[in-house]
């Protein structure tokens, strides 16, 4: 697979010869693959739970976490571009063996925990939408995951396009939900002021940070950029870095825009469903919505969900 990717590599000069627009679009994509990790079921579960309990109080944590993600992912992708090595390869070259084993164990544990959240989240989603048993949903998820990985044999571009398509499906779904919500601008802006309300809110904030920045995604981003395009001069490297800034900024902006709405959904009361942080937090009161603590409950309370029939006019 590595040999196939290397054969597909183009020089920056060849890509720029396609024109300013086509050439730039050709170099975008790795950050969108990394961004999918920021809109996974773990993020949604944390956001829905936090929004239901604290309303817009912790909206600022989502903003800070996504800004932090922009910096971390940019540094990771830049390391891959400049050195031609992934972050794990760089760590292997520079750290002693005990440190390398520790970093490997950390990445494996986090990846396994994340995969569990993905499979459970996908199983719940299939159950809510199609009524499938959890085992069937998990098996379908496994097949889809293997099929996505198989796209890498056709080169990096088909894989990036497929992941970006999934990302935009998520964005579209929450965008429609957000358009149906009557958000109070004053409450939304108040949530951007850093503050806590007891130790429980601090714990939820830590959970948001933990669900946002994950080591294996940082490693992945550097690997995606390290062997993607061949730079033959310092000017080529600078050009790649400029486009990487755009790539990371766009992808993380989209991921953040999804997470900010998801927070409000469980808190909707007497209004159509909204999106992540805003979905649970959108409510006529400031304490969230009682009885809405996770995705399945939030789905059941949505006026447009199968359990409640068509949304009332």
Q: How would you explain this protein's 3D organization?
A:
The protein has helices at 2-8, 12-16, 20-27, 30-35, 41-54, 59-83, 87-94, 97-130, 134-150, 156-179, 185-190, 199-212, 215-226, 234-262, 278-281, 295-301; strands at residues 10-11, 229-230, 276-277. 37% of the residues are buried. By secondary structure, it is mainly alpha-helical. The protein has a two-stranded parallel ribbon. Mean pLDDT is 77; it is low at 1-7, 269-276, 283-293 and 303-313.
- Shape estimate: globular
- The order of strands across the largest sheet is 1-2
**Low-confidence stretches at least 5 residues in length (pLDDT < 50)?**
1-7, 269-276, 283-293, 303-313
How many structural units, i.e. domains?
Answer: 1
Beginning-to-end CA distance, first to last residue: 53 Å
Strand proportion, as a percent range, falls in under 5%
Return Rg in Å: 21 Å
Helix content: over 70%
The total of helices stands at 16
Major pleated sheet: 2 strands, parallel
Q: What is the number of E strands?
A: 3
Mean pLDDT: 77
Structural class: mainly alpha
List SSEs in N-to-C order.
Answer: HEHHHHHHHHHHHHEHEHH
Task: Provide the fold topology.
Elements: H1 2-8, E1 10-11, H2 12-16, H3 20-27, H4 30-35, H5 41-54, H6 59-83, H7 87-94, H8 97-130, H9 134-150, H10 156-179, H11 185-190, H12 199-212, H13 215-226, E2 229-230, H14 234-262, E3 276-277, H15 278-281, H16 295-301
Parallel strand pairs: 1-2
Helix pairs in contact: 5-12, 6-12, 6-13, 6-14, 8-9, 10-14
